[in-house]
Amino acid sequence: MHRFSFVSLCAVALVAVLVFSGETRTVEAVTCDVSELSPCMAAITSPIPPSTTCCSKLKEQKPCFCQYLKNPTIKQFVDTPKAKKIASTCGVEYPRC
User: Fold this and answer.
1) Taking a C-beta distance cutoff of 8 angstroms, is the pair 50, 86 a contact?
2) Does pTM top 0.85 for this prediction?
3) Maximum pairwise Cα distance, the chain
4) Signal peptide position in this chain (predicted)?
5) CA–CA separation, 90 and 11 (whole Å)
6) Residue 43 burial (CB < 10 Å; 0-12/13-18/19+)?
7) 52: nearest Cα among 42, 66, 62
8) Residues 50-89: tens digit of each pLDDT
9) How many separate helices (H) and strands (E) can be counted in the chain?
């Protein structure tokens, strides 16, 4: 019985540490705005690799990719081999919508 109480006490202590550790995880909503991808224009229009800012913006806007692909005006820029290569270089998986 004493061992069961000790294990229970350790479990409660672990939960308390996790809950009160001060680490909170929040999910921020992404505003889908294709102009946020403007740092990638240099990589799209020239042979230079994507910048770190471009890669950050691609990761940030990833939830919006399918929406962008549904827009014919935007699709012509984001559904190209060059755009797919930039996404791959940045470690961003290209969506299958």
Assistant:
1) yes
2) no
3) 71
4) 1-29
5) 41
6) buried
7) 42
8) 999 999 999 999 999 999 999 999 998 889 999 999 999 9
9) 6, 0
